[in-house]
Write a structure and sequence with these properties.
Blueprint lengths: L1 E4 L11 E4 L3 H9 L7 E5 H6 L1 H5 L5 E5 L2
């Protein structure tokens, strides 16, 4: 499980892989760096807006948007 977005550091306490990403470029880098072992991805609203096209073709990966 991974979380991508700004202000998501607290998710590390739950054992989630944290990908701090405050701008569109870093959000895209975080998304492309996820390995095949990541089956669930949580995105902040802003990260979801950046990745709208990428998320549409996630295949078996479950993606959810968390409110910021």
């Amino acid at each position: 499980m991974a979380v991508i977005g700004a202000g998501v550091a607290d998710w590390a306490l739950a054992g989630v892989r944290v990908c701090e990403a405050a701008d569109p470029a870093s959000v895209r880098v975080a998304w492309t760096s996820l390995g095949d072992d990541v089956a669930v991805v949580l995105l902040t609203d802003a990260a979801a807006a950046v990745l709208s096209a990428e998320v549409a073709g996630t295949g078996p990966r479950l993606v959810a948007v968390i409110p910021s």
